[in-house]
Protein: BZIP domain-containing protein
Organism: Glossina brevipalpis
Amino acid sequence: MDCEDMQMIISEEPNLSERKEGGKRGRKPGRKASNEKIDIRAKLERSRQSARECRARKKLRYQYLEELVADREKAVFALRAELERYRLWNSELSEGRIPNGFQQLLEETGFVKQEIIV
């Protein structure tokens, strides 16, 4: 195809910027329903109900997160107490003493088997 053929094809295509008036999308001005006030009231009520439900979901979500944080804080405190106990045991073992509860821990974990006296 040469340049003249291309110009003929372009000139034959319809102009896309020109649109039919009947083919427009969206709202048509001047066309309002007679029951518009009822629709507006219903829409407002649906909006209010949706807002109430949204606030309720938000409240439940915050309660869930607060409970989750509280549970995690309890776990952190328990782990800190356990860590402190292990530090004390370590210092006692370093001094050559067996700390209280250490023997029981070894037996529970299976490192030391209980001797059965017959």
Q: What stands out?
A: The first helix runs from residue 3 to 12.
